[in-house]
Every structure is written in C-alpha cells, then in structure tokens.
Amino acid sequence: MTDQVSAREYFIQGLTLDGKKFRPSDWAERLCGAVSFCGRSNSGPNAYMQYSPYVRPTMVGDVKCVVVDERLREIEPRMFDFVMSFARDNGLQMTEACFVPDVK
C-alpha cells in the first residue's frame, strides 16, 4: 500500500439548512454548466459541453447534489470560490468526504 493523500470532496446538497428541497429542480445541472468547459473544439458542429471533472452533478439517494473536488481550489481558485459561495448564499447543506480507493 502506498501513502497517498486522498482527494477531499464537498457534497453540496439540494436541501436548504432548514431541510427544504432547493429549487429550481435543475439547480445542480445549471451550477455545473456554469463552470463547464467545451470539449473537442470550441466551435462548429463538433463542439459540445462537458462538465468539469472537478464540479459534477450526482444523486445521493433522492437528493440532487454537486460534488466539488478540493483540487479545484488550486487549479481555478475563483471557480472554487464561486461554487462554494453559491452554496453558502443559498443556505444549502454541505458535507465533506474523501475518496478512499479500493485496497486489493
């Protein structure tokens, strides 16, 4: 086994601090889209949007979430601040976790 520092992730949940479901229902996709980037080419018929690997939507049970990789803080600090400020400004619940790789 090697000594690796696992990436820490923040789970922004689609629940307000008082437990209400956050609206609009596509908030996670909108937030991730705001910090996404274009793949392949930036224009033309082959252009497409792709979520950042550092900010991605997911479901945890029946709750929409956005997972934010802490490494984004070093790569794009303003983007990290934007996403975290969105969670704070909208009173969304947030939890921290770390990636634990399978040990074989």
Please give a handful of descriptors for the protein shown.
four-stranded antiparallel beta sheet, two-stranded antiparallel sheet, 24% helix, globular
The CATH class turns out to be Alpha Beta
Class derived from helix and strand content: alpha+beta
Shape: globular
How large is the count of helical segments?
3
Radius of gyration: 15 Å
Secondary-structure element string: EHEEEEHHE
Protein name: PhnO
Pfam families: DUF3579
InterPro entries: DUF3579
Organism: Pandoraea oxalativorans
Summarize the structure in words.
By secondary structure, this protein is an alpha+beta fold. It is built from three helices and six strands; from the N terminus they run βαββββααβ. The protein has one domain (8-98): Alpha-Beta Plaits (2-Layer Sandwich). The strands form two sheets. A four-stranded antiparallel sheet has the order 4-5-1-6, with helices on one face. It has a two-stranded antiparallel sheet with strand order 2-3. A hairpin with a 2-residue loop joins strand 4 (55-60) and strand 5. The protein is globular and about 45 Å long. InterPro entries: DUF3579. This is PhnO.
